[in-house]
Amino acid sequence: MADAGATGTARNAATPEAARVLIAADKFKGSLTAVQVAERVTAGLRRVVPGLAVAALPVADGGDGTVAAAVAAGFERREVRVTGPLGEPVTAAFALRDGTAVVEMAEASGLHLLPPGEFAPLTATTYGTGEVLRAALDAGAGAVVFGVGGSATTDGGAGMLAALGARFLDAAGDPVGPGGGALAGLATADLSGLDPRLAHATVVLASDVDNPLTGPKGAAAVYGPQKGAGPEDVAALDAALAHYARVLEDAVGPRAGECASAPGAGAAGGIGYGALVGLGAGFRPGIEIMLDVLGFAPELERATLVVTGEGSLDAQTLHGKAPAGVAAAATAVGTPVVAVCGRLALTPGELAGAGIRRAYALTDLESDVSRCLAEAGPLLERLAGRIAHDWLAPA
C-alpha cells in the first residue's frame, strides 16, 4: 500500500479467531457491481485468513445500483415494462420486502438507457419512473424508498407525476410534451388526479445531493451538462423549471414554491422536486436511509472491522456518498474502517476526517487505469489480501 493512502498505523482489529469483517462497499462503476466487490474482497481476505468470518452487505446511496443492493440484502426483485427516457419501452426493476419497496429512478429514466453518444436534455422524460412507482403500489407497497440519481432527464419529475395521474396542460388545454424543455409552455397543472394510494404511502426521497431546483446550483446548471445540455439548453431548462414551479405554486399553494429551494429538489434533473411536491416525500441522505433499509446496524454490532469503498474515493465521496456514510456509522460505535477503491484522490487527513483509517487503491498495484478497469476483480482480491495482512493476520 502506498504511504499516500495510509492514515495512521495499521493494527490488528482483532485476533483472526475473533475477527468478523463486514464488507459494506458500493459498486466500482464501469467494472464491478457492489455484489462483485464483496465477493472479491471476501476471497482475498480468506486467502490470507482461511475460515475468516465475513458478512457481505453491498450498499448504495440511492443512485444506480440501489435496487441491486436491496435484492442482495434479501428483497424480492420485481420487473415491469415501462416507458424509457426517450419514450421507448424498457424493462425496469424494483425491490420489495414486507410492504417496503425500493425504487431506483435510473432503472426507468437513467442515462445508461440512452444509445451510446445520444442525449436528449430537453425531451427525456421520467414518465417510466412514475410507472415503476405505480407498479410498486400495485404490489402492495405502503412505504417507498425512492432512490434518485444517474438520470437522463431534467423534467422536474413532471413525467413521473403524469404517469401517476397528474395533468400538465398548455394554453390550448393539451398535454405538454415530454421533457424539461416543454415545461416552458406549461399553462396549468392539476394534481387532483394523482393515485389516491399515494396519500397513504410513506415516500422517502433518497439522494446523495441536496441541490435546489433552479439557479446556479440547480438541476440544470449543475447536472444538465452531464446529460448533453449546452449553455443555451441549460438556460432554457433552468427557466422552464422555474416556470414549472410557479405554475405548481398556483395549483397547490405556497408549499410548491418552498419545495423548490428545499434540499434534494434539484436531484436527478429535478425529480426530487416532483417527489417533494407531488408524492409528499421526505428527504433523507440516500446512504442513511439505505443503511437502515438494508439492516446495516445489526451487522455492524457483530463486526470487528468494516471494509467499505467505491470506484473513486474523491471529494464527492465526502458529500454523502456510500463510503462516507458507512464510515460515519461505524466510527460512531468505535469500529475501525478501511476502504478499497479503484482510484484514490483524498489526502490522509481527508480520509481520517471521514473516519477511514486507511485506503487501498487498485492503482497502487497497477498504474494503467485501463488495466485497472479490465482486471478490477483480481486486483481487488490482491488488495484484500493486503488488508488481511495489515489488520487481521497475527502480529
Written overview of the protein:
- By secondary structure, this protein is α/β, with parallel strands linked by helices.
- It folds into two domains: 3-57 and 303-391, Glycerate kinase, domain 1 (Rossmann fold, 3-Layer(aba) Sandwich), CATH 3.40.50.10350; 66-287, Glycerate kinase, domain 2, CATH 3.90.1510.10.
- It has helices spanning 34-48, 66-72, 106-109, 127-138, 158-163, 219-223, 231-252, 254-259, 267-278, 286-294, 296-302, 322-332, 348-353, 369-374, 376-391, and strands at 20-23, 53-56, 76-83, 89-97, 100-104, 143-147, 167-169, 188-190, 202-207, 282-285, 305-313, 337-344, 358-361.
- The chain has a six-stranded mixed beta sheet with strand order 3-4-5-6-9-10, sandwiched between helices.
- The radius of gyration is 22 Å and the shape is elongated.
- 55% of the residues are buried.
CATH hierarchy class name of the largest domain: Alpha Beta
Radius of gyration: 22 Å
Provide the spatial order of strands within the biggest beta sheet: 3-4-5-6-9-10
* Secondary structure tally: strands: 13
Range of helix content? 25-40%
List the secondary-structure elements in sequence, H or E: EHEHEEEHHEHEEEHHHHEHHEHEHEHH
What name does the CATH topology of the largest domain carry? Glycerate kinase, domain 2
* % residues in beta strands: 15-25%
Taking the alpha carbons of the first and last residues, their distance comes to 18 Å
The CATH homologous superfamily of the largest domain is called Glycerate kinase, domain 2
Give the averaged pLDDT, no decimals: 94
Count of discrete structural domains: 2
Reported CATH architecture of the largest domain? Alpha-Beta Complex
Given the C-alpha coordinates, what overall shape results? elongated
| Total of helices | 15
Structural class: alpha/beta
- Which regions contain 5 or more consecutive residues with pLDDT less than 50? 1-9
Main beta-sheet strand count, sense and barrel state: 6 strands, mixed
